[in-house]
Amino acid sequence: MAVSTRPLRILLAKPGLDGHDRGVKIIARALRDAGFEVIYTGLHQTPEMIAEAAVQEDVDLVGLSILSGAHLTLFPAVIDELRARGGADIPMFGGGIIPDEDRPTLRAAGVAEIFTPGASTHDIVAWIHANVRPRAL
Q1: Angle in degrees, 0-180, between the axes of helices 22-33 and 121-131, rounded to the nearest 10
Q2: How far apart are CA 8 and CA 96, in angstroms?
Q3: Rounded to an integer, what distance in angstroms lies between the CA atom of residue 36 and that of residue 55?
Q4: Taking a C-beta distance cutoff of 8 angstroms, is the pair 115, 124 a contact?
Q5: Per-residue pLDDT reduced to its tens digit, 23-61
Q6: What stretch of H or E contains 128?
Q7: Alpha carbon distances (Å) from 99 to 10, 18, 25, 32, 95
Q8: What is the DSSP string of 25-59?
Q9: pLDDT tens for residues 14-24?
Q10: What is the spatial distance between Cα 13 and Cα 4, in angstroms, rounded to a whole number?
Q11: Pair 61, 2: CB distance under 8 Å
Q12: What is the pTM of this model?
């Protein structure tokens, strides 16, 4: 059996009406600098648009950034859309302004990890290396 040597493909997106994208751009650069292949979809993405891009781009991981407070609605909606499009095996992590009390709900919905302000890019890269493997082709 051949072992894949391709870099992990990671899709980053900003769901909803949140227009603040400095943080996700910093994460995109840090992930690229760490050797990952990064696709950033830009602002104002719907869950359907994010899931469709993830499946079409055959990514290994989806990362969402949100500062608007709509994470309890939008994160599970993206997971539902991934499942509907055959991407149920694509893990998702999220970041942004997310209260600690919302973490259990997001984890129960299928969010693999949550990073809030203060998390270092090193921590995010280390988590990816420890927890994400290339999906089977």
Answers
A1: 60
A2: 22
A3: 17
A4: yes
A5: 999 999 999 999 999 999 999 999 999 999 999 999 999
A6: helix 121-131
A7: 25, 17, 22, 28, 11
A8: HHHHHHHHHTT-EEEE--SSB-HHHHHHHHHHTT-
A9: 999 888 889 99
A10: 25
A11: no
A12: 0.94
Write out the DSSP string of 61-91: EEEEEE-SS-HHHHHHHHHHHHHHTT-TT--
Non-local CB neighbours of 102 within 8 Å, separated by 6+ positions? 71, 72
| Residue found by looking up tokens 């499946």 in the block | 55
- What is the DSSP-derived secondary structure letter of residue 117? T
Copy the structure tokens of residue 33: 């600098």
71-84 and 47-56 helices, crossing angle to 10°: 40
Q: Retrieve residue 128's tokens.
A: 């990816």
